[in-house]
Design a protein that fits this description.
Largest sheet: 9 strands, mixed
CATH superfamily: FAD/NAD(P)-binding domain
Bound molecules: flavin-adenine dinucleotide
Number of helices: 10
Number of domains: 1
Structural class: alpha/beta
Low-confidence stretches: 410-416
CATH class: Alpha Beta
Shape: globular
CATH topology: FAD/NAD(P)-binding domain
CATH architecture: 3-Layer(bba) Sandwich
Oligomer: single chain
């Protein structure tokens, strides 16, 4: 079952066959969640010769991994100097290189997913944001040669709109068809020896005789270690984990193919504003426009009229163009805006909380989690392992997010 309403269900490569678990099975490592995190971890474990099974409640890529904007963005929410001060230079290098991990995997496994390392643009329309972008660019320029600033005229030419006063271009980024990539990862993991069960929700984790028993409606998987890779769809499998993140919805609306002078560049783009709007032009010339939305699943373009109106504001030539698909999904936000790796037990690994930048980061975490899961001398990983911390007043998140979105929209409108 694909996620509801997505364009990708029509444009992605076919899904590999991933039958539900039927009976009992024993593996070294069981992975809960078949998104980029779980599938990339499983692929790398299988390549290391480890027996591994992925248990996914729906189908590989059903969660955020098969519904996202397809923007392969380098770095983290915080600037490199801040990341280095908080966690050291290794984390900066790791997050900056994450898109290369994605594009290298695609190349190595010949995954058909419309991948294009065409760069990421971060655009500013307020002077305050432009100064921030210059700071970010200067910090990256001390570390690599892939990042530069783009002036008003150039960004106007690249996008076909005069909305922006400048942009940061990061050539490490790019775009892909995310459901195609998730399915390709699942296929590659299976080719390498991993087992992937779709339609297999894990309802309970139980330790028995030193091994984990992962209970599902159609059988039990016994494993020495488990990796929890459930991100914005995290439930109550592990105590406190659900309340350590805020599962925020984001949504995308897709147009019919648009004229060539609308967004002539194939770079991915996200705006720096109070409310992030992100978009790209896909292989077929459609605009895929994303942003925050009501906190529920949506499937009709009309429900994202404000994004459609905004697209027309950027490119008046889009007035009257058809918008054919709309969908939403949940991503995980953390209190400190960093991804989190937890090890609440020496046989349990958790990785989640990519804060809307998970395409590259979650994929790049795969080899890290695999290395950590098999232990040994190289088990040290790029993201430090921390304890699970519940977010205070977690029950209020829904109304807080709605209020924050409304407040941000007003500030962006007023140019504050
Ligand atoms: C609309 C939208 C747009 C986005 N745009 C971008 C973007 O352009 N660029 C970017 O970098 N990031 C983007 N993101 C974020 C990015 O998609 C995520 O960070 C990333 O996909 C997380 O991958 P994951 O594998 O950790 O989680 P997911 O892909 O969400 O996978 C988690 C899986 O766990 C499964 N699961 C949960 N509980 C159980 C259980 N008990 N048993 C079995 N299975 C279970 C779910 O079914 C789900 O498939 C976006 C997210 C959304 C929702």
């Amino acid at each position: 079952m694909t996620s509801p309403g997505t364009l990708y269900a029509e444009t992605a490569r076919p899904a590999p066959r991933t039958d539900p678990l039927d009976g009992d099975r024993s593996v070294s490592v069981a992975v809960v969640g078949g998104g980029f995190t779980g599938l990339s971890a499983a692929l790398h474990l299988a390549e290391l010769g480890v027996s591994v099974a992925v248990l996914e409640a729906h189908e590989p890529g059903w969660g955020a991994s098969g519904r996202n904007g397809g923007q392969v963005n380098p770095g983290l929410k915080h600037d490199p100097d801040q990341v280095e001060a908080d966690f050291g230079a290794r984390m900066v290098a790791f997050s900056g290189n994450a898109p290369n991990v994605v594009f290298d995997l695609i190349q190595r496994h010949q995954i058909a997913c419309e991948a294009l390392q065409s760069g990421t643009l971060r655009t500013a329309f307020h002077r305050r944001n432009l100064a921030g972008l210059h700071r970010t660019a200067e910090q990256w320029a001390r570390r690599c040669t892939d990042v530069s600033m783009v002036d008003r005229e150039t960004i106007g030419g690249l996008t076909g709109t005069d909305r922006y006063s400048g942009a940061l271009l990061d050539r490490r980024g790019g775009q892909l068809n995310p459901l195609g990539f998730a399915r390709g990862l699942a296929h590659a993991a299976m080719q390498a020896g991993a087992v992937v069960h779709g339609g297999t929700p894990v309802s309970r984790l139980r330790k028995n005789g030193g091994r984990w028993h992962l209970e599902t409606p159609s059988g039990t998987v016994k494993a020495d270690k488990i990796i929890l890779a459930t991100n914005g769809y995290t439930g109550d499998l592990w105590p406190g984990l659900r309340r350590s993140i805020v599962p925020v919805y984001s949504a995308i609306v897709a147009s019919e193919p648009v004229p060539d002078n609308v967004m002539p560049t194939r770079s991915s783009l996200y705006e720096l504003g109070q409310i992030t709007v992100y978009y790209r032009k896909d292989r077929d010339g459609r605009i895929l426009m994303g942003g925050r939305c009501v906190q529920r699943d949506i499937s009709r373009p009309k429900e994202l009229q404000y994004l459609i109106d905004y697209a027309v504001r950027l490119w008046p030539a889009l007035r009257g163009i058809g918008w054919t698909h709309a969908w939403s999904g949940q991503l995980a936000i953390t209190a400190d805006h960093y991804p989190h790796v937890h090890e609440p037990d020496e046989t349990v690994l958790v990785c989640l909380g990519y804060n809307g930048r998970g395409v590259a980061m979650s994929t790049a975490m795969g080899p890290e989690l695999a290395r950590r899961a098999i232990g040994g001398r190289d088990a040290d990983i790029a993201i430090p392992v921390t304890g699970i911390k519940e977010i205070p007043l977690h029950g209020l998140w829904k109304s807080a997010v709605q209020a924050r979105v409304a407040y941000g929209r007003v500030r962006d409108f007023l140019g504050l």
